[in-house]
Design goal:
The protein has one domain. By secondary structure, it is of the alpha+beta class. The strands form 2 sheets. A 5-stranded antiparallel sheet has the order 2-1-8-5-4, with no helix packed on it.
Length: 155
């Protein structure tokens, strides 16, 4: 009887452990970017500093959802001079690595759990990408700098 209980416990543990999947384990291509896009990955690093410049928090995330890959790539192409651009070669394939920084000083206390890339549109702002993360609290005067890194294949 004890042997049967032990075997069932081991099998149950294996089943429970095999079903977990964190965002850190997901491959880059699962950033909700259609496979027809040349964009391979979008990453965000966030540095939160208080009004005196002291580091409050640092967050990294690869949980970025691109809402419209075509417009996202057009935005990159149309604003290429605003990005720091590097070309790297891996396995005989060339890739573009773009970096862009954006800062905001918060005017009121809040909790932020998403950082966005959006553009002006006729109907207001159009969301192109959203970086989800665990969130951080800010108070008035806190400065948040988001460091965006975008990798796409060079055709």
């Amino acid at each position: 009887m004890r042997t049967l209980l032990f075997v069932l416990l081991v099998i149950g543990s294996i089943l429970v452990l095999s079903t977990g999947n964190s965002f850190a384990q997901n491959p880059v291509v699962q950033n909700n970017i259609p496979t027809t896009s040349t964009t391979l990955g979008v990453y965000a690093q966030l540095v939160i500093r208080d009004s005196s410049g002291h580091l409050v928090s640092y967050i990294e995330t690869s949980r970025v959802v691109v809402h419209n890959a075509t417009k996202f790539n057009q935005m990159i192409d149309n604003n290429i001079d605003r990005f720091k651009r590097t070309v790297i070669n891996s396995g005989g394939q060339d890739f573009e690595v773009f970096q862009l920084n954006a800062s905001i000083v918060h005017q009121s206390p809040t909790i932020v759990s998403q950082n966005l890339i959006d553009v002006a549109a006729i109907a207001g702002r159009e969301l192109l990408a959203a970086a989800d993360h665990d969130g951080y609290p800010v108070v008035a005067g806190d400065n948040v700098t988001t460091y965006w890194t975008i990798i796409r294949s060079l055709s």
